[in-house]
Amino acid sequence: MFNQLKSEALKLRYSRLFLAIPLLCLAGLLLYASFSLSKEGTQIFVSEGDEETDSAIQGVIGFFAFSYQSADAPKFHEILQSCLSCNVFLWVIALIFTIQFFCADYAAGTIRLPVAYGISRVKVFLAKLIVIVLYNGVCYFFFYGLTLCFTCMRAGYIPDGAQILQYFYYVGLNFLVMASFLVLCLMACICLKHTGVAATALCIFTLGGAIVYTGIWQNFHSHAALKYLVWLNPLYYWMNMGSFRFAYGLIYEIIAYFAFSFLVLLPICVLLIRKQELK
Fold first, then answer.
1. pLDDT tens for residues 146-200?
2. Under a CB-based contact definition with an 8 Å cutoff, are residues 226 and 212 in contact?
């Protein structure tokens, strides 16, 4: 298994994706920086008027960037909201990387080489998954570190150690959702067997789920058919995290989503891989 992990890591190291993903993250950081040019801040995928609560911070969902009550004296939770708004576009980068890296061997036909040498298909799949998750994780946390630095410098705010730990705690929760999304991406690749079709289907699913959720979120639990579809959507968790809607068990939902992905979806992927015909 270690040799296969090393092989997949070397494939990534010498592929265009190794540099392309950081460049895309840099482009995302520049896009995020452009949000700061608006005096009133930027709001994306935002809904208001929650009937379940009168609390100002819990009465909205979505992504808020640089929406400060006082630009001269921003509060730390407002800085957190700005930084967490990056999930608006980070999932696209993760989607591109995951599909391109996973499908490269299948497209080139080189996936048959390790199998021909007696390496289990499951080991090949798990090695790819581990490399994908780890590389995404490194880029993810490094990106959010830069984002925090930029936002604090832009606001003239100096966070203390406890606030930095709190920030990366939220980033870690978001990454649990990202890791689950990566498993969903791999399942789509295995089932659809086409890079373009898988990417299109996942984009429609992710954005469509976010639009559905913004339309029904005030009475979310009364929509039995739709809520399970929304629960599979990563933007459901990121939009609620972006507005700190913890009162309704968001942290437990994130943990449940992560457990479902790795205890249910991942074994399904393994079963599909075992039965998959290599061409």
1. 999 999 998 888 899 999 999 999 999 999 999 999 999 999 988 887 888 889 9
2. yes
The encoded tokens of residue 191 equal: 């089932």
- Which pair of structure tokens corresponds to residue 71? 């630009």
DSSP at 74: -
β-partners of residue 48 are 60
Return the bridge partners of 43, or none. Answer: 64
**For 187-215, how does the pLDDT look when each residue is reduced to its tens digit (9 = 90+)?**
998 888 788 888 999 999 998 888 888 87
Q: Which two tokens stand for residue 182?
A: 């990566």
* Residue 155 burial (C-beta neighbours within 10 Å; 0-12, 13-18, 19+): buried
Distance from first CA to last CA of the chain, Å, rounded? 23
Q: Which two tokens stand for residue 249?
A: 């068990």
CA dist 131 and 22 (Å) reads 16
The owner of tokens 């992504």 is: 63
Residues comprising the chain, all counted: 279
Note the helical H segments in the chain.
2-13, 17-35, 76-84, 87-108, 112-116, 121-155, 161-192, 195-216, 224-231, 234-242, 250-260, 266-275
Kindly give, in sequence order, each residue whose CB lies less than 8 Å from that of residue 186, ignoring residues fewer than 6 positions away: 98, 102, 125, 128, 129, 132, 269
- By DSSP bridging, strand 60-65 and strand 42-48 are antiparallel
The residue ranges of the chain whose pLDDT is under 50 are: 51-58
Distance CA 52, CA 55 (A): 9
The token pair at 254 is 């994130």
Q: How many Cα atoms are found within 13 Å in the side-chain-facing hemisphere of 184?
A: 24
